[in-house]
Amino acid sequence: MITPSKFITLQQSILGRLPLLLALPPPYTIHQLYKHVEDGFPDINEFIYAVDALHVLGKLDVDLESGIVRHAA
Predict the structure, then answer these.
(1) How far apart are CA 28 and CA 35, in angstroms?
(2) Nearest-angstrom CA–CA distance, 21 and 46
(3) What does the alpha-carbon distance between residue 8 and residue 57 come to, in Å, rounded to a whole number?
(4) How far apart are CA 5 and CA 7, in angstroms?
């Protein structure tokens, strides 16, 4: 359910959930971020896909050693 299709609406897709992550003021740890937005994601896998997508798009920086997520500069 990464992208919308004939059967998956935009709101049900990962792309439709990206604004949930961008609306929060960082920095957060991955765990804190998930706790704040877990109601907007059906499971943790979709949350991880969303964080990955924003990281690839250059919108989030993720420090893998500390687990801190920040908006990209």
Answers:
(1) 10
(2) 12
(3) 22
(4) 5
10-67 pLDDT per residue, tens: 888 999 999 999 998 879 999 999 999 999 999 999 999 999 999 999 999 999 899 8
Dihedral pair phi/psi, residue 69, rounded to 5°:
-115, 130
- Report the C-alpha dihedral over residues 42, 20, 62, 34, rounded to 10 degrees: -40
Cβ atoms within 10 Å of 51's Cβ, excluding its own: 21
> pTM value?
0.87
Residue found by looking up tokens 């935009």 in the block:
10
- Would you state the torsion angle of the CA atoms of residues 5, 16, 12, 61, taken in this order, to the nearest 10 degrees? 110
